[in-house]
Design brief:
The chain has 251 residues and is α/β, with parallel strands linked by helices. It folds into two domains: 2-81 and 159-246, Rossmann fold (3-Layer(aba) Sandwich); 90-157, no CATH class. The chain is 38% helix and 25% strand. The strands form two sheets. It has a six-stranded mixed sheet with strand order 6-7-8-3-9-10, with helices on both faces. It has a four-stranded antiparallel sheet with strand order 2-1-4-5, with helices on one face.
């Protein structure tokens, strides 16, 4: 479903992503972990072209683009294949929860408002916020705003959902409600890439764990292998700080 080949991204002279190669199967849930500044969020933003890589190829489903020669038409087509959930929600402040979800359907997909509203209300039900349909973001908690953002990402039926540290801006008591919603949307038909610092959650829900450092994928494997038998010293050092968090995580 998703293939990344020789992806490179620079900020001025800083080489942020270094020849990144990654393949993700349809319906696979992949969690990306690693220290701050390792390129995790930049990788997600390059996949849906919020950031423009300098070189490499991206394939989502049957669409392949060379990022150095990409046209506006290709860019829009690729972006329509993904749904993005940001750290800070990125909701329209002047639109209700329902309007935030339906905006992409009505404007982007030219869907009739009644049809879009029906989809939006169904998704709000799915994330446990049906009664907040007419509420504006300022009236919602951080956890509720993020749940609306997740519903919005699902509305366009993307091939790939990208979640960029979706709990990092939340107060600790709100984290679990968002993690539970993420858990509920995993259907093993939609492909999910999740950047997270929630190690126990990543270990529980992911089919694969990717450890990134210094702009490169250092280690890639099944959760049990990465968390109990990491092969690379960088991975071992990183996970030491989370040892207490991941021990005995499974019921």
């Amino acid at each position: 479903m998703l293939t990344i080949s020789k992806l490179n991204k620079f900020y001025d002279k800083t080489h942020v992503l270094k020849d990144v190669d990654l393949s993700v199967a349809q319906g696979e849930v992949v969690a990306i972990i690693g220290p701050s500044g390792s390129g995790k969020s930049t990788l997600l933003r390059c996949i849906n072209l919020l950031e423009k890589p300098e070189s490499g190829t991206l394939t989502i489903d049957d669409l392949t683009v060379d990022v150095a020669k990409i046209s506006t038409k290709q860019e829009n087509a690729l972006r329509q294949q993904t749904g993005m959930v940001f750290q800070h929600y990125n909701l329209f402040k002047n639109k209700t929860a329902l309007q935030n979800i339906t905006e992409g359907l009505i404007i982007g997909k030219k869907m009739p408002k009644a049809e879009a509203d029906a989809i939006g209300l169904n998704l709000l039900e799915k994330v446990g916020l049906r009664e907040k349909a007419d509420s504006y973001p300022a009236m919602l908690s951080g956890g509720q705003q993020q749940r609306v953002a997740i519903a919005r990402s699902l509305a366009v039926k993307p091939k790939v959902i990208l979640l960029d540290e979706p709990t990092s801006a939340l107060d600790p008591e709100l984290v679990q409600e968002v993690l539970q919603v993420i858990r509920s949307i995993i259907d093993h038909q939609t492909t999910i890439l999740l950047v997270t610092h929630e190690m126990s959650f990543a270990r529980d829900i992911a089919d694969r764990i990717i450890f990134m450092a210094d702009g490169a994928i250092v280690e890639d494997g099944e959760p049990e292998q990465i968390f109990t038998r990491p092969q690379h010293q960088r991975t071992q050092r990183f996970l030491l700080s989370y040892q207490n968090d991941v021990s005995g995580h499974r019921p």
